[in-house]
Protein backbone atom coordinates (compact mmCIF):
# COMPACT_ATOMS: atom_id res chain seq x y z
CA UNK A 1 0.00 0.00 0.00
CA UNK A 2 1.53 3.31 -1.06
CA UNK A 3 1.96 6.31 1.25
CA UNK A 4 -0.87 8.35 -0.33
CA UNK A 5 -3.45 5.58 0.20
CA UNK A 6 -2.29 5.09 3.82
CA UNK A 7 -2.75 8.80 4.51
CA UNK A 8 -6.25 8.76 3.06
CA UNK A 9 -7.24 5.74 5.16
CA UNK A 10 -5.69 7.18 8.31
CA UNK A 11 -7.52 10.46 7.75
CA UNK A 12 -10.81 8.64 7.31
CA UNK A 13 -10.22 6.70 10.56
CA UNK A 14 -9.48 9.89 12.44
CA UNK A 15 -12.59 11.59 11.04
CA UNK A 16 -14.66 8.61 12.10
CA UNK A 17 -13.18 8.66 15.58
CA UNK A 18 -13.84 12.39 15.89
CA UNK A 19 -17.43 11.95 14.71
CA UNK A 20 -18.00 9.18 17.24
CA UNK A 21 -16.51 11.31 20.01
CA UNK A 22 -18.69 14.25 19.07
CA UNK A 23 -21.75 12.00 19.04
CA UNK A 24 -20.92 10.96 22.61
CA UNK A 25 -20.04 14.46 23.77
CA UNK A 26 -21.58 15.48 27.07
CA UNK A 27 -24.53 17.81 26.57
CA UNK A 28 -25.75 20.19 29.23
CA UNK A 29 -28.96 22.13 29.66
CA UNK A 30 -29.35 25.53 31.30
CA UNK A 31 -32.24 26.95 33.31
CA UNK A 32 -31.76 30.68 33.65
CA UNK A 33 -33.07 33.68 35.57
CA UNK A 34 -31.86 37.15 34.57
CA UNK A 35 -31.81 40.09 36.93
CA UNK A 36 -33.65 42.27 34.40
CA UNK A 37 -36.61 39.83 34.44
CA UNK A 38 -36.32 39.16 30.71
CA UNK A 39 -35.87 35.47 31.63
CA UNK A 40 -37.49 34.01 34.75
CA UNK A 41 -36.49 30.40 35.42
CA UNK A 42 -36.69 29.25 31.82
CA UNK A 43 -34.89 26.42 30.06
CA UNK A 44 -32.67 27.77 27.31
CA UNK A 45 -33.30 26.25 23.90
CA UNK A 46 -29.73 25.77 22.72
CA UNK A 47 -27.99 22.77 24.33
CA UNK A 48 -24.48 23.27 25.63
CA UNK A 49 -21.63 20.88 24.86
CA UNK A 50 -18.56 19.98 26.89
CA UNK A 51 -15.47 19.97 24.69
CA UNK A 52 -11.95 18.62 25.04
CA UNK A 53 -9.37 21.30 25.65
CA UNK A 54 -7.64 23.46 28.20
CA UNK A 55 -9.51 26.01 30.26
CA UNK A 56 -8.67 29.68 29.85
CA UNK A 57 -9.90 32.13 32.47
CA UNK A 58 -12.16 31.53 35.44
CA UNK A 59 -12.98 27.83 35.78
CA UNK A 60 -15.40 26.02 38.08
CA UNK A 61 -14.19 22.44 38.37
CA UNK A 62 -16.82 19.89 39.36
CA UNK A 63 -15.57 16.65 40.94
CA UNK A 64 -18.14 13.98 41.68
CA UNK A 65 -15.50 11.77 43.30
CA UNK A 66 -15.68 13.99 46.39
CA UNK A 67 -18.96 13.57 48.25
CA UNK A 68 -20.34 15.61 51.13
CA UNK A 69 -23.82 15.57 52.74
CA UNK A 70 -26.96 14.02 51.23
CA UNK A 71 -29.82 16.33 50.35
CA UNK A 72 -33.37 15.98 51.72
CA UNK A 73 -34.99 18.77 49.71
CA UNK A 74 -35.84 22.42 49.16
CA UNK A 75 -39.01 24.34 49.88
CA UNK A 76 -40.94 26.72 52.10
CA UNK A 77 -43.07 27.04 55.22
CA UNK A 78 -46.69 26.18 54.57
CA UNK A 79 -47.98 28.55 57.24
CA UNK A 80 -51.62 28.57 58.30
CA UNK A 81 -51.98 31.81 56.37
CA UNK A 82 -50.49 30.22 53.25
CA UNK A 83 -52.88 27.29 53.50
CA UNK A 84 -55.81 29.65 54.11
CA UNK A 85 -55.17 31.49 50.84
CA UNK A 86 -54.67 28.27 48.91
CA UNK A 87 -57.80 26.54 50.22
CA UNK A 88 -59.92 29.59 49.31
CA UNK A 89 -58.93 29.39 45.65
CA UNK A 90 -61.25 27.71 43.16
CA UNK A 91 -60.61 23.97 42.82
CA UNK A 92 -59.20 24.45 39.32
CA UNK A 93 -56.87 27.32 40.29
CA UNK A 94 -55.72 25.53 43.43
CA UNK A 95 -54.93 22.34 41.52
CA UNK A 96 -52.92 24.27 38.93
CA UNK A 97 -50.92 26.11 41.60
CA UNK A 98 -50.16 22.98 43.63
CA UNK A 99 -49.09 21.10 40.50
CA UNK A 100 -46.70 23.88 39.57
CA UNK A 101 -45.25 23.97 43.07
CA UNK A 102 -44.94 20.26 43.83
CA UNK A 103 -44.78 18.30 40.56
CA UNK A 104 -41.60 18.05 38.46
CA UNK A 105 -42.92 17.92 34.90
CA UNK A 106 -42.59 20.78 32.41
CA UNK A 107 -42.08 24.08 34.23
CA UNK A 108 -43.17 22.70 37.61
CA UNK A 109 -40.59 23.31 40.34
CA UNK A 110 -40.83 20.16 42.47
CA UNK A 111 -40.80 21.46 46.05
CA UNK A 112 -39.68 18.50 48.15
CA UNK A 113 -39.60 19.82 51.74
CA UNK A 114 -42.15 21.80 53.80
CA UNK A 115 -42.24 23.32 57.25
CA UNK A 116 -45.51 23.40 59.20
CA UNK A 117 -46.20 25.33 62.37
CA UNK A 118 -47.29 23.24 65.34
CA UNK A 119 -50.25 25.39 66.33
CA UNK A 120 -50.29 28.96 65.06
CA UNK A 121 -47.29 30.88 63.78
CA UNK A 122 -47.16 34.65 63.51
CA UNK A 123 -48.57 34.26 59.97
CA UNK A 124 -51.96 32.98 61.05
CA UNK A 125 -55.15 35.05 61.27
CA UNK A 126 -55.25 34.43 65.00
CA UNK A 127 -53.19 32.74 67.68
CA UNK A 128 -54.17 29.23 68.80
CA UNK A 129 -52.72 26.04 70.17
CA UNK A 130 -54.20 22.55 70.00
CA UNK A 131 -55.23 22.64 73.66
CA UNK A 132 -56.37 26.14 74.58
CA UNK A 133 -58.18 26.38 77.91
CA UNK A 134 -60.20 29.10 79.68
CA UNK A 135 -58.10 31.33 81.91
CA UNK A 136 -57.15 29.55 85.12
CA UNK A 137 -57.78 26.04 83.74
CA UNK A 138 -55.28 23.41 82.63
CA UNK A 139 -55.42 20.10 80.78
CA UNK A 140 -52.40 17.98 81.77
CA UNK A 141 -53.96 14.78 80.38
CA UNK A 142 -54.53 16.39 76.95
CA UNK A 143 -58.22 15.50 77.12
CA UNK A 144 -59.11 18.53 74.99
CA UNK A 145 -56.30 18.18 72.43
CA UNK A 146 -57.57 18.91 68.91
CA UNK A 147 -55.90 20.01 65.66
CA UNK A 148 -58.59 22.68 65.45
CA UNK A 149 -58.07 25.35 62.77
CA UNK A 150 -55.51 23.22 60.91
CA UNK A 151 -58.37 20.91 59.94
CA UNK A 152 -59.89 23.65 57.77
CA UNK A 153 -56.80 24.64 55.77
CA UNK A 154 -53.38 23.09 56.52
CA UNK A 155 -54.54 19.47 56.57
CA UNK A 156 -56.72 19.55 53.41
CA UNK A 157 -53.99 21.42 51.52
CA UNK A 158 -51.39 18.93 52.74
CA UNK A 159 -53.53 16.04 51.52
CA UNK A 160 -53.63 17.55 48.03
CA UNK A 161 -49.87 18.08 48.14
CA UNK A 162 -49.29 14.48 49.23
CA UNK A 163 -51.39 13.27 46.31
CA UNK A 164 -48.84 14.99 44.04
CA UNK A 165 -45.71 14.06 46.02
CA UNK A 166 -46.32 11.34 48.64
CA UNK A 167 -42.64 11.38 49.65
CA UNK A 168 -42.41 15.07 50.55
CA UNK A 169 -40.59 15.65 53.84
CA UNK A 170 -42.34 17.67 56.53
CA UNK A 171 -40.78 19.56 59.42
CA UNK A 172 -43.00 20.70 62.28
CA UNK A 173 -42.04 23.72 64.42
CA UNK A 174 -43.90 25.13 67.44
CA UNK A 175 -44.08 28.88 68.05
CA UNK A 176 -45.52 28.45 71.54
CA UNK A 177 -46.97 25.83 73.88
CA UNK A 178 -50.53 26.40 75.13
CA UNK A 179 -50.53 29.55 77.28
CA UNK A 180 -51.49 27.61 80.42
CA UNK A 181 -48.14 25.77 80.24
CA UNK A 182 -46.18 29.04 80.35
CA UNK A 183 -44.83 31.16 83.19
CA UNK A 184 -46.64 34.28 81.93
CA UNK A 185 -49.87 32.53 80.86
CA UNK A 186 -49.62 34.38 77.54
CA UNK A 187 -49.12 33.29 73.95
CA UNK A 188 -46.25 35.78 73.61
CA UNK A 189 -42.95 35.27 75.42
CA UNK A 190 -42.61 33.60 78.80
CA UNK A 191 -40.94 30.27 79.56
CA UNK A 192 -42.21 26.73 79.77
CA UNK A 193 -43.19 25.94 83.37
CA UNK A 194 -40.87 23.24 84.77
CA UNK A 195 -43.83 21.11 85.88
CA UNK A 196 -45.19 21.28 82.33
CA UNK A 197 -42.11 19.77 80.66
CA UNK A 198 -43.61 16.25 80.59
CA UNK A 199 -47.02 17.66 79.64
CA UNK A 200 -45.57 19.52 76.67
CA UNK A 201 -43.72 16.39 75.56
CA UNK A 202 -47.08 14.61 75.59
CA UNK A 203 -48.57 17.48 73.54
CA UNK A 204 -45.92 17.07 70.83
CA UNK A 205 -46.39 13.30 70.79
CA UNK A 206 -50.12 13.78 70.30
CA UNK A 207 -49.48 16.23 67.46
CA UNK A 208 -47.38 13.72 65.55
CA UNK A 209 -49.91 10.96 66.17
CA UNK A 210 -52.86 13.14 65.17
CA UNK A 211 -51.19 14.23 61.94
CA UNK A 212 -50.33 10.62 61.13
CA UNK A 213 -53.99 9.73 61.65
CA UNK A 214 -54.72 12.28 58.91
CA UNK A 215 -52.20 10.63 56.59
CA UNK A 216 -49.46 13.21 57.22
CA UNK A 217 -46.09 11.91 58.39
CA UNK A 218 -44.01 14.44 60.34
CA UNK A 219 -40.42 13.59 59.42
CA UNK A 220 -38.84 15.93 61.98
CA UNK A 221 -39.67 18.60 64.53
CA UNK A 222 -37.72 21.46 65.99
CA UNK A 223 -38.17 22.12 69.69
CA UNK A 224 -38.96 25.81 69.41
CA UNK A 225 -38.99 28.36 66.60
CA UNK A 226 -36.49 31.12 67.39
CA UNK A 227 -36.07 30.21 71.07
CA UNK A 228 -34.08 33.38 71.76
CA UNK A 229 -36.71 35.73 70.28
CA UNK A 230 -39.76 35.96 72.57
CA UNK A 231 -41.15 39.02 70.77
CA UNK A 232 -43.29 37.27 68.16
CA UNK A 233 -46.91 36.39 68.79
CA UNK A 234 -46.89 33.49 69.48
CA UNK A 235 -43.40 32.85 70.89
CA UNK A 236 -41.49 31.32 73.80
CA UNK A 237 -38.12 32.00 75.41
CA UNK A 238 -36.19 28.75 75.74
CA UNK A 239 -32.52 28.99 76.73
CA UNK A 240 -30.11 26.25 75.69
CA UNK A 241 -30.02 24.55 79.12
CA UNK A 242 -33.84 24.44 79.16
CA UNK A 243 -34.02 22.96 75.66
CA UNK A 244 -31.38 20.37 76.54
CA UNK A 245 -33.19 19.43 79.73
CA UNK A 246 -36.52 19.13 77.90
CA UNK A 247 -35.07 16.82 75.24
CA UNK A 248 -33.04 14.66 77.61
CA UNK A 249 -35.58 14.14 80.36
CA UNK A 250 -38.91 14.53 78.58
CA UNK A 251 -39.25 14.64 74.80
CA UNK A 252 -36.61 12.05 73.91
CA UNK A 253 -37.95 9.47 76.38
CA UNK A 254 -41.57 10.28 75.39
CA UNK A 255 -40.79 9.67 71.70
CA UNK A 256 -39.05 6.43 72.57
CA UNK A 257 -41.92 5.22 74.74
CA UNK A 258 -44.47 6.02 72.00
CA UNK A 259 -42.37 4.41 69.27
CA UNK A 260 -42.11 7.70 67.38
CA UNK A 261 -39.34 7.89 64.77
CA UNK A 262 -39.76 11.62 64.05
CA UNK A 263 -36.35 13.33 64.16
CA UNK A 264 -35.56 15.89 66.84
CA UNK A 265 -33.79 19.02 65.59
CA UNK A 266 -32.23 21.56 67.95
CA UNK A 267 -32.16 25.33 68.03
CA UNK A 268 -34.05 26.62 64.90
CA UNK A 269 -32.64 30.14 65.15
CA UNK A 270 -29.95 32.45 63.77
CA UNK A 271 -26.40 31.59 62.78
CA UNK A 272 -24.99 34.06 65.33
CA UNK A 273 -25.29 31.57 68.20
CA UNK A 274 -23.65 28.28 67.20
CA UNK A 275 -22.82 27.83 70.88
CA UNK A 276 -26.49 27.11 71.56
CA UNK A 277 -26.71 23.78 69.67
CA UNK A 278 -23.09 22.85 70.41
CA UNK A 279 -23.63 23.18 74.16
CA UNK A 280 -26.63 20.84 74.03
CA UNK A 281 -24.92 18.31 71.78
CA UNK A 282 -21.94 18.22 74.15
CA UNK A 283 -24.11 16.23 76.58
CA UNK A 284 -24.10 12.56 75.48
CA UNK A 285 -27.35 11.86 77.33
CA UNK A 286 -29.13 14.50 75.24
CA UNK A 287 -27.22 13.95 72.00
CA UNK A 288 -28.50 10.38 71.65
CA UNK A 289 -32.01 11.72 71.01
CA UNK A 290 -30.98 14.46 68.57
CA UNK A 291 -30.71 14.21 64.78
CA UNK A 292 -29.22 17.66 64.16
CA UNK A 293 -29.47 21.44 64.38
CA UNK A 294 -31.58 23.98 62.46
CA UNK A 295 -30.64 27.53 61.46
CA UNK A 296 -32.01 30.85 60.20
CA UNK A 297 -29.90 33.68 58.78
CA UNK A 298 -31.36 36.92 60.16
CA UNK A 299 -28.13 37.20 62.14
CA UNK A 300 -24.63 35.74 61.99
CA UNK A 301 -22.70 34.17 59.14
CA UNK A 302 -23.70 31.07 57.21
CA UNK A 303 -20.26 29.57 57.96
CA UNK A 304 -21.46 28.98 61.54
CA UNK A 305 -23.26 25.90 60.20
CA UNK A 306 -19.86 24.40 59.42
CA UNK A 307 -18.68 25.27 62.94
CA UNK A 308 -21.51 23.19 64.38
CA UNK A 309 -20.86 20.39 61.86
CA UNK A 310 -17.18 20.32 62.81
CA UNK A 311 -18.00 20.21 66.52
CA UNK A 312 -20.40 17.27 66.03
CA UNK A 313 -19.88 15.78 62.55
CA UNK A 314 -22.15 12.83 63.37
CA UNK A 315 -25.16 15.18 63.61
CA UNK A 316 -27.01 16.75 60.68
CA UNK A 317 -27.41 20.39 59.73
CA UNK A 318 -30.67 21.91 58.44
CA UNK A 319 -31.60 25.35 57.16
CA UNK A 320 -35.13 25.91 58.40
CA UNK A 321 -36.11 29.54 57.65
CA UNK A 322 -35.24 32.77 55.88
CA UNK A 323 -37.57 35.53 54.74
CA UNK A 324 -36.80 36.55 51.14
CA UNK A 325 -38.62 39.65 49.87
CA UNK A 326 -38.48 42.17 47.04
CA UNK A 327 -40.23 45.52 46.45
CA UNK A 328 -43.51 45.23 44.58
CA UNK A 329 -43.46 45.99 40.83
CA UNK A 330 -39.68 46.31 40.79
CA UNK A 331 -38.14 46.20 37.30
CA UNK A 332 -35.34 43.89 38.41
CA UNK A 333 -35.19 40.72 40.51
CA UNK A 334 -32.47 40.34 43.13
CA UNK A 335 -32.27 36.57 42.81
CA UNK A 336 -28.50 36.39 43.21
CA UNK A 337 -28.67 37.21 46.94
CA UNK A 338 -30.92 34.36 48.15
CA UNK A 339 -29.29 31.87 45.81
CA UNK A 340 -25.80 32.85 46.99
CA UNK A 341 -26.64 33.15 50.68
CA UNK A 342 -29.17 30.34 51.13
CA UNK A 343 -29.24 27.79 48.32
CA UNK A 344 -25.47 27.86 47.83
CA UNK A 345 -24.41 29.15 51.24
CA UNK A 346 -26.34 26.69 53.38
CA UNK A 347 -25.59 23.60 51.31
CA UNK A 348 -21.88 24.44 51.04
CA UNK A 349 -21.98 24.55 54.85
CA UNK A 350 -23.42 21.04 55.27
CA UNK A 351 -27.15 21.70 55.31
CA UNK A 352 -29.31 18.84 54.05
CA UNK A 353 -32.13 21.21 53.07
CA UNK A 354 -33.02 24.84 52.45
CA UNK A 355 -36.38 26.27 53.52
CA UNK A 356 -37.36 29.83 52.74
CA UNK A 357 -40.08 31.50 54.76
CA UNK A 358 -43.71 31.50 53.85
CA UNK A 359 -45.14 29.87 50.76
CA UNK A 360 -48.01 32.33 50.18
CA UNK A 361 -49.48 35.65 51.27
CA UNK A 362 -51.97 38.10 49.81
CA UNK A 363 -51.03 41.47 48.24
CA UNK A 364 -51.08 43.09 51.71
CA UNK A 365 -48.85 40.31 53.17
CA UNK A 366 -51.75 39.10 55.29
CA UNK A 367 -52.59 37.28 57.44
CA UNK A 368 -50.39 37.96 60.45
CA UNK A 369 -51.13 38.03 64.16
CA UNK A 370 -51.43 41.13 66.33
CA UNK A 371 -48.84 42.00 69.00
CA UNK A 372 -45.90 40.61 67.04
CA UNK A 373 -46.93 39.19 63.67
CA UNK A 374 -44.95 39.94 60.52
CA UNK A 375 -46.50 42.72 58.37
CA UNK A 376 -43.73 42.51 55.73
CA UNK A 377 -43.47 38.76 55.08
CA UNK A 378 -43.95 38.39 51.35
CA UNK A 379 -44.93 34.94 50.12
CA UNK A 380 -43.04 32.94 47.53
CA UNK A 381 -46.29 33.45 45.66
CA UNK A 382 -48.79 36.26 46.12
CA UNK A 383 -52.38 35.00 45.93
CA UNK A 384 -55.14 37.45 45.10
CA UNK A 385 -58.28 35.31 44.96
CA UNK A 386 -57.41 33.02 42.00
CA UNK A 387 -54.57 35.14 40.62
CA UNK A 388 -51.00 34.06 41.41
CA UNK A 389 -47.85 36.18 41.20
CA UNK A 390 -44.47 34.50 41.58
CA UNK A 391 -41.87 36.31 43.69
CA UNK A 392 -38.12 36.12 44.21
CA UNK A 393 -38.37 33.34 46.83
CA UNK A 394 -40.21 31.14 44.31
CA UNK A 395 -37.51 31.51 41.67
CA UNK A 396 -34.58 31.11 44.06
CA UNK A 397 -35.87 27.81 45.42
CA UNK A 398 -36.90 26.62 41.94
CA UNK A 399 -33.28 26.74 40.76
CA UNK A 400 -32.53 23.92 43.21
CA UNK A 401 -35.78 22.10 43.97
CA UNK A 402 -36.59 21.02 40.41
CA UNK A 403 -33.24 19.34 39.78
CA UNK A 404 -31.60 18.50 43.11
CA UNK A 405 -34.04 15.82 44.11
CA UNK A 406 -34.07 14.11 47.53
CA UNK A 407 -31.28 11.57 47.71
CA UNK A 408 -28.89 13.78 45.78
CA UNK A 409 -25.48 14.39 47.32
CA UNK A 410 -23.38 17.52 47.31
CA UNK A 411 -20.15 17.10 45.36
CA UNK A 412 -17.02 19.22 45.08
CA UNK A 413 -16.73 22.45 43.13
CA UNK A 414 -14.20 25.19 43.71
CA UNK A 415 -15.52 28.43 45.17
CA UNK A 416 -15.36 31.81 43.48
CA UNK A 417 -15.88 35.23 45.06
CA UNK A 418 -17.98 36.62 42.20
CA UNK A 419 -19.35 33.30 40.89
CA UNK A 420 -20.56 31.51 44.04
CA UNK A 421 -21.69 28.00 43.18
CA UNK A 422 -22.56 24.57 44.48
CA UNK A 423 -22.68 21.18 42.75
CA UNK A 424 -24.69 18.01 43.29
CA UNK A 425 -25.01 14.50 41.92
CA UNK A 426 -28.60 13.30 41.65
CA UNK A 427 -29.89 9.77 42.33
CA UNK A 428 -30.03 9.11 38.56
CA UNK A 429 -26.41 10.17 38.11
CA UNK A 430 -26.90 13.66 36.69
CA UNK A 431 -24.70 16.54 37.76
CA UNK A 432 -26.27 19.86 38.76
CA UNK A 433 -24.29 23.07 39.15
CA UNK A 434 -25.98 26.22 40.48
CA UNK A 435 -24.10 29.47 39.82
CA UNK A 436 -24.90 33.10 40.74
CA UNK A 437 -23.14 36.07 39.17
CA UNK A 438 -22.54 38.53 42.00
CA UNK A 439 -19.91 40.49 40.08
CA UNK A 440 -20.11 43.94 38.52
CA UNK A 441 -20.86 42.81 34.97
CA UNK A 442 -21.35 39.89 32.62
CA UNK A 443 -18.89 37.10 33.39
CA UNK A 444 -17.61 34.40 31.08
CA UNK A 445 -16.34 31.25 32.76
CA UNK A 446 -15.69 27.57 32.20
CA UNK A 447 -17.30 24.54 33.79
CA UNK A 448 -14.79 21.69 33.90
CA UNK A 449 -15.85 18.10 34.41
CA UNK A 450 -13.76 14.97 33.82
CA UNK A 451 -11.23 16.90 31.78
CA UNK A 452 -13.75 18.51 29.43
CA UNK A 453 -14.71 22.16 29.29
CA UNK A 454 -18.02 23.96 28.91
CA UNK A 455 -17.61 27.68 28.13
CA UNK A 456 -20.55 29.79 29.33
CA UNK A 457 -21.41 33.28 30.50
CA UNK A 458 -23.87 34.85 32.93
CA UNK A 459 -25.12 38.42 32.99
CA UNK A 460 -24.72 40.50 36.14
CA UNK A 461 -27.13 39.40 38.89
CA UNK A 462 -28.25 36.33 36.96
CA UNK A 463 -28.51 32.74 38.18
CA UNK A 464 -28.01 29.62 36.11
CA UNK A 465 -28.60 25.97 36.89
CA UNK A 466 -26.56 23.68 34.61
CA UNK A 467 -27.55 20.02 34.31
CA UNK A 468 -25.67 17.22 32.54
From TrEMBL:
Keywords: Glycosidase, Hydrolase, Signal. The lineage of its organism: Bacteria, Pseudomonadati, Bacteroidota, Sphingobacteriia, Sphingobacteriales. Residues 407-466 form the Glycosyl hydrolase family 30 beta sandwich domain. Pfam families: Glyco_hydro_30, Glyco_hydro_30C. This is Glucosylceramidase. Residues 71-404 form the Glycosyl hydrolase family 30 TIM-barrel domain. One of its GO terms (cellular component) is membrane. Residues 1-23 form the signal peptide. PANTHER family: GLUCOSYLCERAMIDASE, LYSOSOMAL ACID GLUCOSYLCERAMIDASE. Transmembrane segments: none annotated. One of its GO terms (molecular function) is glucosylceramidase activity. Belongs to the glycosyl hydrolase 30 family. SUPFAM superfamilies: (Trans)glycosidases (SSF51445). GO terms for biological process: glucosylceramide catabolic process.
